[in-house]
Every structure is written in structure tokens, then in C-alpha cells.
Amino acid sequence: MNPMLPLLQPYPFERLRLLLAGVTPDPAYKPISLGIGEPKHATPPFIQQALCDAINRSPSGLAAYPATAGEPALRQAFAAWMGKRYGLSVNPLTQTLPVNGSREALFALTQTIIDPADSAVTGVKPIVVCPNPFYQIYEGAALLAGAEPYYVASDPARNFAPDWDSVPDAVWARTQQLFVCSPGNPTGAVMPLGEWQKLFDLSDRFGFVIASDECYSEIYFRDEPPLGGLQAAAQLGRHDFKNLISLTSLSKRSNVPGLRSGFVAGDAALISAFLLYRTYHGCAMSPVVQSASLAAWGDEAHVIENRALYRAKFAAVTPLLAEVMQVALPDAGFYLWADVAGDELAFTRELYATYNVTVLPGSFLAREAQGSNPGAGRIRMALVADTAECVEAAHRIRQFVLGRGR
Question: Which of 14, 16, 46, 125 is the most exposed place for a label (fewest CB within 10 A)?
């Protein structure tokens, strides 16, 4: 067996299941889950139709093996979308690749990049730097690639933004890959251009690859859409996107998490190496999924409608909760990152028992590092259900918090 497997920690939702085991919620309340960030808005009918149409076409339906690189038309759709969204000019055939969702690509990219060759001799593993709190795939990808995760201290005063200045040069010198997530999970924070400049300077100095996870980029609450990694690079004159890969997905943008479709884009040399890895890995995208994806990337009307649904929902829910707990509208994403002023594990269990509402403890999304777990005392709430259900959950949470305070 792979000796790295025992290093993997239980996934947050398995930890949540164990935390709530044996707790019987009040049956007077219908269950509401704010725990899992799985989009619940309706999938646009035109995407479903494109999927069905592709099945019935021959030979592009199910009658042929797909190419790992994807159909040229799909990669051109990626490039066209980046041109409209970010003002970028990319070569679709050398700077983009289809992937089966960003989660799969985040893991596979790390297996492509990390070189653990010297660690067997020196005992010193390469490092993958992660934000903290973070998406647990970053950690698992690092461990299974033979690297050591390094969890960057976060700054609560800046919405838990990573404190890159706190990372010693000795750590950067061993770093082969850096994960960034903007908009962030769970905080929804967006990285400004100055922060990107700092990371590009560090990458140039120490030679590591930046993997930019941007799966929440199309759900935002400000007038200006979030800055993307490749967009930041272009604004700073880095048009070759050296040592930079961005990863995005249709799951949140188009409400198709079951489609498992996204793409990566960036440094052509890294894309070439990633294509070689994927050719052996056997992760080509199905032709019917490619057809549905092409349709989805080519339409913005449904994305605007989806964003409006989230904006209305957050406008209804956030003020209700802000009256009883420390929570604020994020820059982007579909999570609320709230301070419960105490033990987040006890809060989660008691809320579930009393009002049948499930939330995720913030400590499950972070690690003890640099003397603390930045998720301690916090919960993440995924506002993915319809507005009425989320508002009902907010009212129950208000009652619970007020009841605890008496």
C-alpha cells in the first residue's frame, strides 16, 4: 500500500458526521443543511439539452474514445470566455486543458509538479504551501505527492487572508508549489493585485508553481468581479504566465456539480507536462460532457441570473444573523464565515439538536499551525438552498443564539 495514505486526515464531512452521531434533532423542525457547499439552484435547461443532444449524435456521442486534450472547439470556448471575463488572450491549444472538475485537477496537478527525488536521500521533503483555513484537497494532494504541507498563518483582521510575510525564506526555498484560493473558501476573500505581485516575486525568486483555485469566481457581491490569477499576471506584464496555473469549474458558475467539468489555463510548459500526466492517468472528459460544457461556457445569461439569486439570498440572510453574531457579507462565494464566540463544536452539536440545522465547524477546515487553529470559534454556513429555506435556517440560528445568551 502507498505509505502516504495513513497521513490523510478524515474529510470535514466525515468529521461532521462523527460529531453529530448520537444526536437526535428535534423532529418538530424540518432538517436544513448549511454544511456542504453543493449548489442547489436548478441546472439551466439548455445545458441539459446539450447533454442529451450529444448522446444522440454519432460518432461524437458515446461511440468514440475522447482525446485527453479535449476537442479544439471546447478549448477555444475556454479561451473565448477568458477573453470576455478577464480581457486575456490565450492560445487555446497550448495554454488550456479540460478537466473533470477543479477538485480532480487540483489533486492531479500536484502529482505532476512535485519532485520528491531528493527526500529519500536527505530526509527533507519538498513543501506545498497552503492557506489556512483551506480546502482539504490541497493537503491531501501534497501528502500523496510525497511533499510536506505548510499552513500559512492567517490574519483575522483581514478576513483571514494568508500572511505571506510570516513564511520564512527557509520554507520558500523548499517550496515547489503554492495553493491560493481567490475567492477564498471559506471566507470569500478576494486577493488584490498587490498580493499577487508579492506572490509572483516570491515565485520568481524561489521557482515554485502557483496553483490558483478560482471555482467561486462568478458568485460575487461587489460591483467589480473578482480578479483572476492570470488576469493579475497580465496586468503586471507577465503575459507568459510563468509558473502559474489557474483552475476553474462549471459546478458553481452553472449549477452542474454532477457534470464534473472545468478547465485549467496558464503556463504552456506546465500545461504540456500536465497533458502528458493526464494521458497516462486516463482522465479524458466524456464527449457528451464536452458538448454540454461548450454550451455552458458560451452563455452568460444564466450566470447573471444565478448570481442574482445568491445576491438576493445573502441580502435576506446576512442582516438577520449579523444582529446576533459576528458575520458579514463576503466579497464572493456562497459561504458565511461566522464567529460563534465560543466552542464551535458545541455550537454545531447544540444547534443541530435544538433546531435541526447543520453547519460546519470552522476548525474542520483548518489545521493547528503557528500556535493556533484559525477556524476555532467559527462556523461555515453554505447558503446553497433556496432563499426561503436559508431564511428559515437564519431565523432558527437567531433563536438559538439568543436562547444561549439568556
Answer: 14
3-state secondary structure of 275: helix
Q: Quick check: is 153 in a domain? A: yes
Residue 404 corresponds to which amino acid? Answer: R
Residue 330 is part of which domain span? 5-42+302-405
Q: Residue 37: helix, strand or coil by DSSP? A: coil
Is residue 396 assigned to a domain? Answer: yes
CATH number at residue 213: 3.40.640.10
Q: 162 in helix, strand or coil?
A: strand
Asked whether residue 209 falls in the same domain as residue 332, the answer is: no
- Do 280 and 346 belong to one domain? no
Q: Residue 109's pLDDT is what?
A: 98
Q: What is the 3-state secondary structure of 298-356?
A: CCCHHHHHHHHHHHHHHHHHHHHHHCCCECCCCCECCEEEEECCCCHHHHHHHHHHHHC
Q: What pLDDT, in 10s, does the model give residues 88-131? A: 999 999 999 999 999 999 999 999 999 988 777 678 999 999 99
Omega of the bond prior to 374 within 30 degrees of 0, cis? no
What's residue 272's pLDDT? 98
Contact yes or no for 183/330 (Cβ under 8 A): yes
Neighbours of 205 (CB within 10 A): 11
Convert the pLDDT of each residue in 11-51 to its tens digit: 999 999 999 999 999 999 999 999 999 999 999 999 999 99
User: Residue 132 burial by CB count (10 A; 0-12/13-18/19+): exposed, middle or buried?
Assistant: buried
Q: What is the pLDDT of residues 313-351, one digit of tens each?
A: 999 999 999 999 999 999 999 999 999 999 999 999 999
- Looking at the DSSP bridge assignments, the partners of residue 358 are 33
Q: Is residue 51, in this structure, part of any structural domain at all?
A: no
CA distance linking residue 232 with residue 217, whole number of Å = 14
Which residues neighbour 335 within 8 Å (Cβ) at sequence distance 6 or greater? 37, 185, 186, 187, 188, 380, 381, 382, 383
